[in-house]
Amino acid sequence: MTTVYLVRHGETVWNAERKIQGQLDSPLTAEGISQAHWVAKRAKSLGITHLYSSDLGRAVQTASIIAQPLKLEVITDRRWRELNMGILEGRCIDDLSDKENAMRRAPLSGALDARILEGESMQEMANRLHQALNDLKSLPKGSIPLVICHGLALGCLIGTIMGLPAHAPRRIRLRNCSLSRVDYQKSDWLAEGWVVETAGDVSHLNENSRDELL
Fold first, then answer.
1. How many structural domains does the chain have?
2. CATH number at residue 127
3. What sections of the protein cross the membrane (predicted)?
């Protein structure tokens, strides 16, 4: 069995301001930094051997905090990036027109190829995420990697492992610095492949942590 832990990055300035990040970036807030430290404490008990991260700054900043007590190098991989949200990146949700808001929701509308103008579809994102996840199976036996990723990306990855289409309406709530776990299993009673063990665990976080989903 291969075990992979997945963490959404800490709260960012744009999360707090309700701005669309996508593949643009903003730094962690003081709350986001605190969340990352809580994950680091939790991760020390998990036997983590490798630390991977999206190459976007908010994920790398979160990963760097987690890396300190683990004494691990952060390995960045652009395949773990958030959905490319095209022309809406950097915009505040509250300032969008009705047409722009409909465009923002398009990738989760149920249409296979829906995307924000100049962005990518959920299926395109799912393809790169699964490729990156499957590559972790080639790590030495006994390895336990932890990946720092993004909200829409992780929701899509977990959903597709559970058998949902990539463009299905969002049904998984993943808070900043929540912890998820997926296992690659071969057993007599489960089909060989990835299974979801835990999704969105926040038991390690301060109960007052904000629930930002941007």
1. 1
2. 3.40.50.1240
3. 144-166
CA distances for 99 relative to 95, 106, 109, 113, 116, angstroms: 11, 11, 14, 18, 11
Q: What average pLDDT does range 179-207 have in this prediction?
A: 88
Q: Which residues are catalytic?
A: 9, 82
Tell me: pLDDT of 40 over 80.
yes
Cα 178 from Cα 174, distance rounded (Å): 6
This prediction has a pTM of 0.93
Please write the tens of the pLDDT for every residue from 96-127: 999 999 999 999 887 888 999 999 999 999 99
Give pLDDT, residue 186.
82
Q: Tell whether 209 is covered by a domain.
A: no
194, 24 Cβ separation under 8 angstroms: no
58 neighbors 9 (Cβ within 8 angstroms): yes
Task: For residue 167, give every residue at least 6 positions away whose Cβ sits within 8 Å of its Cβ, in sequence order, or none.
Answer: 107, 108, 109, 110, 111, 112, 114, 121, 122, 123
Instruction: Tell me whether residue 122 is in a domain.
Output: yes
Contact between 182 and 133 (Cβ < 8 Å): yes
* pLDDT tens digits for range 42-74: 999 999 999 999 999 999 999 999 999 999 999
